Here is the input.
Amino acid sequence: MPLTFIEIEEEKSRRIWLFFLILLLIYFIALAALTAAAAQFLALPYDALLKPRHIALLGVASLIAASIHFCFSALDTVRFVRDNLGALEPDPADGVHKRLINVLQEIQIVTGNKKKINGVVIPTLAMNALAAVDLRGNATIAITEGLLSRLTRPQLEAVVAHEAHHILSGDCLETTVAASLFGLPAAAVQKLSSAAIREVRLSPALLLTWILLKLGQILNLFISREREYRADAGAVRMTRNPLALAEVLDLLSRNWRGTGFIENGMGMLCIVNTTAAARDESEGWWADLMSTHPPIRTRIAVLLKMAHSDVSALAAMTKSNAGVEAAKSSAPVFYALDPKHQWQGPYRLSELSVLPWISPLTWISDGKQAVERAWKTPQIDQAVFTNRLEQEEKRPSDFSCPSCRQPLLDTSYEQTQVYQCHFCGGTLVENVKIPRIMVRGENPSTDRIRSLSRAVIKENQSRRAGPSSKDVRGETAPLRSCPKCKNPMMRTFYSLAYRVEIDRCSFCGLTWFDSDELEMLQCMIANKMASDPFAGTSGP
Amino acid sequence: MIGWILLGVVVLGLLWMVIVYNGLVSLRNEVQNAWKQIDVQLKRRHDLIPNLVSTVKGAMAFEQDTLEKVISARAKAVAATGPRDKAESENMLTQALGKLFAVVENYPQLKSNQNILQLQEELTSTENRIGFARQFYNDLVASYRIKQEVFPNNIIVNLVGGFGKEEYFEAEQADRAVPKADLSLR
Here is the structure.
């Protein structure tokens, strides 16, 4: 992919100068305020402050301070980011890490080996990825262990390509510099304070963090949301696989993206913002101005449109090559994306229904319309999934699964009635029944559940809830709708001590547990694996 | 006065020719470099295959035919020169490898063998690298060809010469064909 980035380079250096000027201005105002306060304290006349000599002195002082600040923060940012996140080099002896190393090299090839990009792994269960470049020219892509282990190869390629595009297009340098001025110092202070201060609710460190984060938000004004769309498009251009990236975004939107672990100041470097803020999910000039990331739903929609042309080309080829038979019959045919990310088809409905790997979340296209999840196509929904559910012995209920949109099955778990999804394994429980389930232990937990719970507890202990977590509770993005009333559900932790993320509808008194979440909570409670609710919290 | 203007036009024209010529030369070199990159990756694949064959040989005594096909396809691929020739032989090698891995699926003790899993990962990665290197090369060839053929660059190309038409590295035909699923319930 030949990249000619002269214009972008020019734009980039202009913006970095702009950041420097803003920094200068902030220092000037701060120093002016300080001298004014000092004058007030020492009862000096104010006229002296307005003399040109004094102003020039202030200007020089702030220039020196800003230059030192700028050099310190923007020169060695990559190392700082890595240290702050505790990121490690991938281990070549580890199969999953080896895959990351390989994928990184593959993506470098498609970009023509323009720049050496390092990869690091952040040891956390959270799911996110970020890129950082500094003025020394070091470039790094960091992926969390949680995301790395849950991605298929094509999905990993898409993520790495997205981050590589940020790096090569130069917008990453601009974002890293913006983050390094205030966001990263805020992150450092947050980390220090959460390690040192346990139960003090108000401390100078918190005030400093707050001020730095607010100053950082000024720079957010100059970070364009568009860059994420461009990086998505660039990733598709490299990997030619828009659906893999759409799937990753969908996965990220429904999981813990690292709030509390990846500090707020670094949010703008990530592929999706660490906090699921409602502002990020809204459109309009205010959101465009204040937010660093565009709405995930829009990003997915754009990617799906790209995939459409992908499938229609395939459909055209089928007709000209081998699909004469399929074209003759008038029955509708569909293309489906298999787990290895290859389009398969054309299939008739009867053929689709016997595919072992089809699920309501499989991507389907009829070759003409845009690509959609299988549950969105009424014919397939009826012919495949409703049929499968009818073969089940359990009775379907009136509720439907918030991700697969299929009726939940009336199931008995720990001798009480719950509603379970046949396809994704999620469970819907009425709030009154949760305590009953939690105290009963008829289904002993498996090794997998036990080790998962241990990992979550360990994560919670190291997770620091900074001032940010308050925003998260306040305005979560409505990503799942209640199976009963269809209103958006609240995404919260089960409790302070058992921090497993669940979706709750406060109107209907229902709680949705994703697959494994209910079992994990049971295991934690039965084995008293609670994390200390005060450990690591320093939020106000 | 008119003399000066004429001189100016001639100098500008020469300058323009130099710029176009230099642009074409650097693009030609980039194309050649991109081709070398494909070569590096192809070599990587050729080096992996003997390992693979020796790992599976013991367990797959009954599949000598498949193994021999892989070996001979590799030999042909190593010997091939030039984009078209290479593309053809590499495609044959890809098909032979595909068959081998399909057969490996039938041997549970091979499927779970750690060595094979690693080799499979390496081969997948190499195949991706070849694909990406090819994509990069083809993109460059496309822009090189465009630069040669647009007016007025084509005048210079014909005048100076030395800019050959680089060939595209064609994708495998089997890659493009739609897989036909056999779902007749037996």
Remarks:
- Chain A has four domains: 1-75, 77-302, 322-391, 396-526.
- Residues 284 and 290 of chain A are 10 Å apart (CA to CA).
- The radius of gyration of chain A is 26 Å.
